[in-house]
Amino acid sequence: MDEKKNFFENLSSKSAFKVGLLSGLAIMFVVGFFIMLGLLLKGGDFSLGNKTNNNPTVANNGDNAAAPTVIELKDITKDDWMRGDKKAKLTIVEFSDIDCPYCVKFHETMQKLSEDYKGKINWVYKHFPLTSLHPNAFKKAEAAECVGDLGGNDKFWPFLDKLVTDKTITMDKLAEVAATFGVNATKFQECYDSGKMTSKVQDMADQAVKAGGRGTPYSVIIFDNQKTPINGALPYEQVKAQIDALLK
Length: 248
Prior knowledge:
Number of strands: 7
Number of domains: 2
CATH class of the largest domain: Alpha Beta
């Protein structure tokens, strides 16, 4: 004991400070280690802060996070692109990315549902391009809007179907494809080059985020006053079950 006492008495004040500081750090490290070990054994969460990204960059296969408790959705108007009976009791609003592979799968699901529930449901399509993953998706959305602007609902849907399903179409062929559906290629190109549809596509994307979309496709079933989210590319059977439960 005297030897330890003499050791500390012989240290200079500067050296004693260093020894004390290092000892304190060592104690803190040991205590911190056991605290972390305890949390780990209890399944603790070591995430740092809020990592939620409000700028969607994720294509979704149906494993989305929990839907929001309140879904903000604009009323459907005559200006929306609708496939099906306008008087149908049930509407599915889809926010989608033309170049998203999961959206391609869900597009097929929605086409089948539209046929199987003809007169009972309608399908409203809105753009939600994720440019960080699909750099051409926004411009393709603008192209679809130009076709709709020039040819109406009857031209919009077949053009959209073509862009979604045929991935061999290059950006320089959009006017040519539009022409195959009876849209004037020159007028289409003027609309496309002008950027007049940019704000419309952006507004739809903003609507998607407000409605709870964090990936694509993101859809909302509207029935009476109920709004039910569909997160991702759910298979036909699962969406059908939701529709049947509402229409029973």
